[in-house]
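Suppose a colleague, Dr. K., hands you the sequence of a protein chain of 472 amino acids and asks what its three-dimensional shape might be. Before reaching for any lab equipment, you can write down a predicted structure in token form. Begin with the sequence itself:
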Amino acid sequence: MSKEEKPESVPLCPLGAAAAPEQELLCIFGTGDLGRSLGQRLLQSGYRVVHGSRRPHNCGPLPQGAQVMNHEAAAKSASLVFLCIHRENYDFLTNLAPQLNGKVLVDVSNNLKKNQYPEANAEYLQRLIPGAHVVKAFNTLSAWALQNGPSDANRQVYLCGNSVEAKQAVAETATKLGFSVLDRGSLKAARELEDSPLLLFPEWRLPLRLAVCLTAFFFFYLLIRDIVYAYVDQGKNNSFRIMVSLANKVFPIVSLIMLSLCYLPGVIAAIFQLYRGTKYRRFPDWLDRWMLCRKQLGLLALGFASLHVLYTLIIPIRYYVRFRIAASTISQIKENRTSEFDITSAWRGDSYYSMGILGFCLFLLLGISSLPSVSNALSWREFSFIQSKLGYLTLFFCTFHTYLYGWDRFLRPSTYKWYTPPGYMLSLVVPSVVLIFKLLLLVPCVDKTLTRIRQGWERCDPEEDAKESLLT
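The predicted structure, expressed as tokens, is then:
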């Protein structure tokens, strides 16, 4: 029996001649802006796309390379279907239940207002087609974000669903599109996901309300003191000062108070921990909400400080200031007198401006480090050093800047118009309290105890110790 001869060489074929793996086919119901943008993004990521439409031959322009069929044919062709249609148009899906059973349905719909329907759109869809695996996803992304790809502001895709396998399939697709996925649990979370695009600055509501209230209060307070008082008591019409002078007093006052309110909850939390002797008890709800909006408070404070800087820069070019300088110069020439140089005023003025410049520069550093693109590049120790250590230093510089502005005015009776303190004195109350309590917390014996508590140490209750000793 002859042995078969084995070839000494293996024939090779060009790489391009090998059969390429077949691309996965995905289906999209809907040919609107969101459906077209999603289809284009899927095509760019290597998928094949088929659109399901009521009018396959008259559905408008679609991305190059996409197919279009009627809903029934499109549903049969893919195992994963994106529903880019409104809830009002879900009724036709009941007729497609046989074709959609066992398939993954990705609901990307949103409503026009919160609680528009008694149940979430995804839950309603699951009830319409109980044999399908409904996943809520991609509803927090706009057509623009899908078309242009992820960015720092909208790189996350939130999803929820009852089927682990279905969520995994959607998560793999989102990852291939360049997004990061955050699983929010079962389909019961769909209501929360559908409400999130309808929220208008939810984390900014409390800080904005506080900023508006403080601005309104100090505006009318200073309006009465500086404008109304001068008109009633002296007969002067200083209403022109409202636009610049009055505003340039309100902005720094509100900025300093809001900056101090960023650090006051940290001091209150430390006092709670020292009083309770543990870190494992929850803070009150009002303190939790306050601490969660500290970033927004700080950014608004930075905005008011920036307005104060801009308004201060235009002071030399104001007509009122130029008129006063010219009038004072002419008066001195006529009276043949000169003003002596006051070194105390010079020191005070230079120190006042220096503290203001240093405080504003550190303020800018705090604002820049709070940006996600910057904070993500910092370690926790670096971020904590900037926001805590440099933050308190910023508060000190800005507070000292305000004290130098007031100087010895609090000793003059004319300062208290209608027996009311000036605005800058009111603005110093909260930051002074914060700095004093912070200094008390830095006392070695207090700081040592607080550090131990934050590392997990708990102070035992004397009554519990007595009971344990009796039992033993």
